[in-house]
Amino acid sequence: MNTVSSNSSSGPTKASRNKKTPRILCVEDNDAVRDVVCHVLSFAGFQCESAPNGKDALERYAQGPDDFDVVVTDHWMAPVNGLELVTSLRLRGFNRGIIVHTAHLNALERIAYEGLGVDAILIKPLESVKLVETVSELTRNRRMRRMAAAVHWKTKTTPLLAEKGGVGCRSSFK
After folding, report:
1. In this structure, are residues 83 and 53 in contact, taking their beta carbons and an 8 Å threshold?
2. For residues 170 and 101, what is the distance between their CA atoms, to the nearest angstrom?
3. CB atoms < 10 A from the CB of 95, how many?
4. How far from the centroid of its chain's Cα atoms is residue 80's Cα?
5. What pTM does this model have?
6. Which terminus of the chain is less hemmed in, N or C, by CB atoms within 10 Å?
7. How far is the C-alpha of 73 from the C-alpha of 50, rounded, in Å?
8. Interval 125-144 mean pLDDT
9. How far is residue 49's CA from residue 57's CA, in Å, rounded to a whole number?
C-alpha cells in the first residue's frame, strides 16, 4: 500500500487526517499508471493512497471506512476486479464518490457500474486535467452537501435555541 501526499511522502498522520484535505484511494494494478494518478492528484492538493488491486483496497477500507472521500479504480484487476470492489464497497456502506478509470468496458459492465451509483467512468488514456476536475467536483459536492446539512440544521434549531435563551442566540428576533 502506497501513500502519496502533498503534505508528506511517509504516509498519512493523525494530524494530516484531521485536515480537510480530501483523501483519495487509487486502485490500479499497473504500477506506472497508479504512480502517475497519485502524483497528479497530490500535485492538485489531494492526499492519495494507493492499492494494487481490489483485494488490497478492501483490506485498507476495513482499517478505516471513513478515511477516503473518493475511490478511483481500474476495472481489469485480479484477484478482485473493479466491479467486485465497487459492489463490496457499496454493500459495506461506502456512499462517497467512486470513479472507474479503465481502458475498456462493455455495455453490461457499464450498466452494472451505473446501477451501483458510480459517479464517473473515465476511459484511458485520460488527460490529467479531466481526472482532477472530476475528483474536485466530487469532493466539492460532498463538502457542499455537508455545509447544506449544517445550515439546514442550524436554521431549524436556531429559533428554538433563541426561544429557550440558548447560548449565542438573541432572546428575541427583530
Report:
1. no
2. 52
3. 9
4. 19
5. 0.74
6. C
7. 10
8. 87
9. 10
